[in-house]
Amino acid sequence: MEDIEAIVVLQDPVRRQLYEYVVAQDHDVSRNEAAEGAGIGRTLAAFHLDKLVDAGLLATESRRLTGRSGPGAGRPAKLYRRSGAEHHVSVPARDYRTAADLLAEVADGARLDVELRAAAAREGRAARAAAGPIEDLDAVRAVLSARGYEPRTDADGAVLRLVNCPFHVLSERHPALICGMNLALLEGLIGDTEGLRARMDPRPGMCCVSVTASKNNDD
């Protein structure tokens, strides 16, 4: 029921807009920033943000934005970010996660990583064929956005980092297997596009793979 209730919370258009704004940022978001991003008042934003926290969709902490402490430092601001919890709804009930975990366990134990990477590369090439020409990071971003990776370009515009791993639970349990699969999928997607390269680039809270443009290809 908790998963269903969380999804129901997002049916409210204001809450959904606030949620999408918060998760799209690369930093914790204050009530003022969220309100401005959604184009609503701060009080209304605070109400809906806390409803999202109650539903387990957002997490919150209090922190002084000035970085100072002691008298005159001001009151701590309440900041929001996406919760680490996952929510799944299936009617009637289905348990694909257990099946995926068992399959990954068997593949890992049987050392089928080569076969899995080959299958992932085929999937990447199929995604490339369906999407049309992949000529730059923008084209890669569009495909990966549709697949739930939440790609974001670094400040210099040369690295595409993937904020969300669609296979997060499996990657925690079988990191070598799933990260290798992710890399092969992106390599298949990029193909022989000149100036683009997928590489292992594990960072806390992100997918283990990133895509670099030409000026970073020698890193």
From TrEMBL:
Please give the superkingdom of this protein's source.
Bacteria
Q: Which Gene3D superfamilies match?
A: Winged helix-like DNA-binding domain superfamily/Winged helix DNA-binding domain
Which spans are transmembrane here? none
Q: Which InterPro entries match?
A: ArsR-like_HTH (IPR011991), WH-like_DNA-bd_sf (IPR036388), WH_DNA-bd_sf (IPR036390)
Q: What is this protein called?
A: Transcriptional regulator
